[in-house]
Specification:
Blueprint lengths: L8 E4 L6 E4 L8 H9 L7 E5 L5 H9 L4 E6 L2 H13 L6 E5 L5 H5 L4 E6 L16 H6 L6 H11 E11 L4 H10 L2 E10 L8 E8 L6 E2 L3 E2 L1 E3 L2 E2 L1 H7 L2
Length: about 240
């Protein structure tokens, strides 16, 4: 295919016949992005923004899975933003998905306050000090808080969301206290949470969380999501999320 660059490949997404361009040398999407797209909700006529969209996986999957009206991805790395735009074009979704190159810390200046019904994000999980080598490498930027931190993301999400708008994030449970504290500080009230476990007898390694801008204090903790019933074999619910 002519618009593939060296090192890139096209992967099937098992949804609506959609495909995505990826480069293993940069960063390929993982299960966390897929689970977030299954946890997040976008209603008819709602506009959605994904902060740090990488190669565009979450806007593309959200477009496939929800009734949302329009989807935007914000990405700071030019090569990833370009890859995302080419994936959008590959699926003929240019009228439904926009990819914008820019800094999450400036998101509310780029788009304006109260401009989205839904904000999603699969942010870097590790703090900037945690085992860093090359801070300019694409994988490092995706995994570590070198270009933005958790507070930047939650602060900008609060500004970007309309009153009553919804915030969806996937993160690691070891930062849950910090996540909830920051959400409450910026008046995104935690409303729904689900822990993801690799196996039924293991500790959770992901958390999915929904917040409501200006919502009242009441949170539902959903039943655990178990990924594998045995090594190499997903549970039925995971197969359903993936669309197999």
């Amino acid at each position: 295919m002519s618009n593939l660059l060296p090192g890139e490949r096209i992967d099937e997404l098992q949804r609506n016949g959609y495909r995505i361009i990826q480069n293993p040398e940069r960063f390929c999407f993982g299960m966390d992005a897929v689970l977030l797209s299954g946890f997040a909700r976008a209603k008819k006529n709602e506009c959605c923004l994904d902060l740090g969209c990488g190669n565009g996986i979450i806007p593309i999957l959200m477009e496939a899975k929800t009734e949302g009206k329009h989807f935007t991805g914000l990405e700071i790395q030019p090569e990833s933003a370009d890859m995302a735009r080419r994936s959008v074009a590959l699926n003929g979704l240019q009228d439904r998905i926009d990819i914008v190159e820019g800094d999450i810390r400036d998101a509310s200046k780029i788009f304006g306050a109260s401009s989205f019904h839904v904000v999603t994000t699969n942010p870097p999980y590790m703090t900037a000090q945690h085992g860093l080598t090359n801070i300019h490498e694409a994988k490092t930027i995706a995994r570590h808080e070198v270009l933005c931190n958790l507070e930047d993301i939650i602060r900008e999400s609060a500004r970007l969301l309309m009153p009553g708008g919804r915030f969806y994030m996937v993160h690691r449970p070891f930062r849950l206290a910090e996540i909830i504290s920051l959400m409450v500080q910026y008046r995104i009230e935690p409303k729904r949470m689900r822990l993801v476990y690799p196996y039924v007898d293991r500790e959770p390694n992901m958390v999915l969380i929904e917040g409501l801008r200006g919502g009242k204090s009441r949170m539902t903790v959903e039943k655990p999501l178990i990924v594998y019933k045995e090594p190499g074999k997903y549970t039925d619910e995971i197969y359903d999320v993936y669309g197999y």
